[in-house]
Design a protein that fits this description.
The chain is an alpha+beta fold and 241 residues long. The protein has one domain: Ribosomal Protein S5, domain 2, CATH 3.30.230.70. It is 27% helix and 29% strand. The strands form two sheets. The chain has a five-stranded mixed beta sheet with strand order 1-2-3-5-4. Strands 6, 7, 8, 9 and 10 form a five-stranded antiparallel beta sheet that branches. Strand 2 and strand 3 form a beta hairpin. Helix 2 runs parallel beside helix 4. The longest helix has 31 residues. It is globular. Bound molecules: adenosine-5'-diphosphate. The site of adenosine-5'-diphosphate has 13 residues, from helix 2 and helix 3.
């Protein structure tokens, strides 16, 4: 097993076990979308575009009592070290579903019967944890589109590398580590909307990883709010609230 934490307790990218990667969120980056966002979480770079609520095509997908949420997570062919074939892979189809299910509980879809809301996630660069960064960015883009929401959704993974519980795994830690546990929460309603665990954790490690991931989500939630405030209330007022 590759050593992913050195004798000083630092990870391969120099972070401590409980340290998040640098985070940047921007709102309203695309002119033609109803709502949009851009996120950098470490080396992940993802653009999200939201269209809707709009007429449903094909029509038979429409529901009489609510809007249909459709998500497409797509990785650009240049987003990984080896060229990724442009057609949707099994992994992308699965992650699209996971993202939809993580976002859906937060949206008041009943307000928009017989419509569709489309969320397009384009991963420009992937470095582990792209589903989490994608969920965080999508919630911001949905808010930017003015979709009624019960709460924001924010996601982060915790896991285990070199025998230690760590937060926000990068690509190498995800692949070479012992466990990866992405979660998403609605931070104000205190509800979980995504929980996955790849690998093995003891009950104690699980408790620790879960708490770390929740705390990380709360930190990322502050960045989501700040990004939205920056756009809608101007940068000067942020920090005075
Ligand atoms: P997540 O990005 O949500 O952690 P995975 O655990 O499936 O999703 O993927 C981990 C990482 O593996 C990705 O973030 C990306 O860096 C890398 N990866 C995914 N698909 C490919 C691919 N087709 N080729 C090379 N690297 C990939």
């Amino acid at each position: 097993m590759k050593e992913l934490i050195d004798e000083k307790g630092l990870r391969i990218d120099g972070r401590r076990v409980d340290e998040l990667r640098p985070l940047k969120i921007e709102v309203g980056v695309l002119k033609n979308a109803d709502g949009s966002s851009y996120i950098e979480m470490g080396k992940n770079k993802i653009v999200v575009a939201v269209y809707g609520p709009k007429e449903v095509h094909p029509k038979h997908q429409a529901l009489p009592d609510r809007s249909v949420l459709r998500c497409r997570y797509h990785m650009a062919p240049f987003s990984t070290d080896t060229r990724k074939p442009p057609q949707p892979s099994r992994r992308e189809i699965e992650i699209s579903k996971v993202i939809r299910e993580a976002l859906e509980p937060a949206l008041i879809l009943e307000e928009y019967p017989r419509t569709a809301i489309d969320v397009y996630l384009e991963v420009l660069q992937a470095d582990g944890g792209s589903r989490c960064a994608g969920i965080t960015a999508s919630a911001v883009a949905l808010a930017d589109a003015g979709i009624s929401m019960r709460d924001m959704v924010v996601a982060c993974a915790a896991g285990k590398t070199s025998g230690q519980v760590v937060i926000d795994l990068n690509d190498v830690e995800d692949k070479e580590g012992e466990a990866d546990m992405p979660i998403a929460i609605m931070p104000n309603l205190n509800q979980l909307t995504l929980f996955q665990l790849d690998g093995i954790l003891t009950p104690e490690e699980f408790e620790k990883a879960f708490e770390m991931a929740i705390n990380a989500c709360r930190t990322i939630y502050d960045a989501q709010r700040k990004a939205l405030m920056d756009k809608y209330f101007g940068k000067a007022e942020v920090g005075e609230e």
